[in-house]
Specification:
mainly alpha, 300 residues, ABC transporter involved in vitamin B12 uptake, BtuC, 12 helices, two-stranded antiparallel ribbon
C-alpha cells in the first residue's frame, strides 16, 4: 500500500474525529441523536465567513467569536426545548432536531444562496513534507485539532467537577438530581459544548474545503459512522473511529477511484451497522465463558 494513501487517510481522520466528537458527547450524556449536528457545522462555516467579511479576520481567529456565539445559541435550544422533549422519550427530540436541521438548511439557503463557498486563507493550499509525502498544511492542522479536542474532552470529563457532574447525570439523572446536580443545566452545557466543537469543525472544513447550505447531510453521516465505530461517549474511541474511517476512505478511493470516496463511507457505515451487533454478541459470549473470565481477571 502506498504510504501517501495511509498518511492522507490519517490526516482526514483527524477532521472526521472532530465531526464525531460533538455527536458522541451529546449521545453519550443524554442519549440524544442530534440530527442537526451537520447543520451546526455548516453554520460555523457561514458564521466564520460573515466575521471575515465584516472584520477581515483570519478564519481561525474568527473562532474567538464564532465558537461562543454558536454555543450561546445552542444552550437555550437544549434547555428550553430538547430537555422537555427528552422526558417524553427518545423520539420527540429526534424529530425536533430533524426539523431544526431543515430550518437551518432552508434559512442558510435563503440568506446566503446555494453557491459553494470557501473561507479565504493563504495557507489552505500550502504544502509540507511529512514522512516523505507532500501534504497540505491545513490537513496536518486538522489532525492536530482533532487530537487536541479529544485530549481536552478526556481531561475535562475525568479531572473536573463539571466532568464528574456530567458523568453522574449520564449514568443516573434522578440520583444526580438528588445529589444537588442541576441535570437540566448539565444537559444544556453539554449541548452548547457540542455546538462549540461543531463550530470549530465548520471553520476548519470551510478553510480546507468548499461548503454549501446542504453540506450538513454528508457531515452527519460521517459523524454517525465515527460514533458507531468508536462507541458513544468515548473521546478516545471517537478519535480512533475517525482515523479508521479516514483510512478506509483513502484506501477505498485509491482502489476504486476518487469519485467513489463518498460511496466508500456510506457502504462502510452500512457494513459497520450490520457487523457491530454480531461482533458484540460474539464478544459477550466469549466473556461469559469461565476461562475467559479468569483470563480477564489475571490481566486486570
Amino acid at each position: 500500500m502506498d504510504l501517501g494513501v495511509v498518511v492522507a487517510g490519517l490526516l482526514t481522520g483527524g477532521l472526521y474525529a472532530t465531526i464525531g466528537l460533538g455527536l458522541s458527547l451529546v449521545f453519550g450524556v443524554m442519549k440524544l441523536v442530534n440530527l442537526a449536528h451537520g447543520e451546526l457545522i455548516v453554520v460555523g462555516a457561514y458564521a466564520s465567513s460573515l466575521v471575515i467579511a465584516w472584520l477581515g479576520l483570519d478564519p481561525f481567529l474568527s473562532l474567538v467569536l464564532v465558537v461562543p456565539v454558536l454555543a450561546a445559541l445552542a444552550y437555550p435550544v437544549q434547555r428550553y426545548l430538547l430537555t422537555g422533549l427528552l422526558r417524553r422519550g427518545l423520539e420527540p427530540p429526534l424529530v425536533a432536531t430533524f426539523g431544526l436541521s431543515l430550518v437551518i438548511s432552508a434559512g442558510l439557503t435563503a440568506l446566503a444562496g446555494g453557491d459553494p463557498r470557501k473561507l479565504p486563507s493563504t495557507y489552505s493550499t500550502a504544502g509540507m513534507n511529512l514522512f516523505g509525502q507532500q501534504v497540505r498544511v491545513i490537513d496536518v492542522v486538522g489532525l492536530g485539532i482533532g487530537v487536541a479536542l479529544t485530549v481536552l474532552i478526556y481531561l475535562v470529563m475525568r479531572h473536573t467537577r463539571w466532568g464528574a457532574a456530567l458523568r453522574a447525570a449520564s449514568t443516573d439523572p434522578a440520583t444526580a438530581g438528588t445529589m444537588g446536580i442541576n441535570v437540566n443545566a448539565v444537559y444544556a452545557i453539554t449541548f452548547a459544548a457540542s455546538a462549540a466543537i461543531a463550530a470549530i469543525g465548520g471553520v476548519f472544513i470551510g478553510t480546507a474545503y468548499s461548503f454549501t447550505p446542504t453540506s450538513g447531510m454528508g457531515y452527519i453521516l460521517i459523524g454517525f459512522t465515527v460514533v458507531v465505530l468508536g462507541g458513544t461517549g468515548s473521546a478516545w474511541g471517537t478519535l480512533i473511529g475517525g482515523l479508521v474511517l479516514g483510512l478506509v476512505q483513502s484506501v477505498g478511493g485509491a482502489l476504486l477511484g476518487g469519485q467513489y470516496r463518498d460511496f466508500v463511507i456510506y457502504a462502510f457505515f452500512i457494513v459497520v451497522l450490520a457487523a457491530k451487533p454480531i461482533a458484540e454478541h460474539l464478544l459477550d459470549r466469549a466473556r461469559s465463558r469461565p476461562g475467559a473470565i479468569r483470563q480477564t481477571g489475571v490481566r486486570a
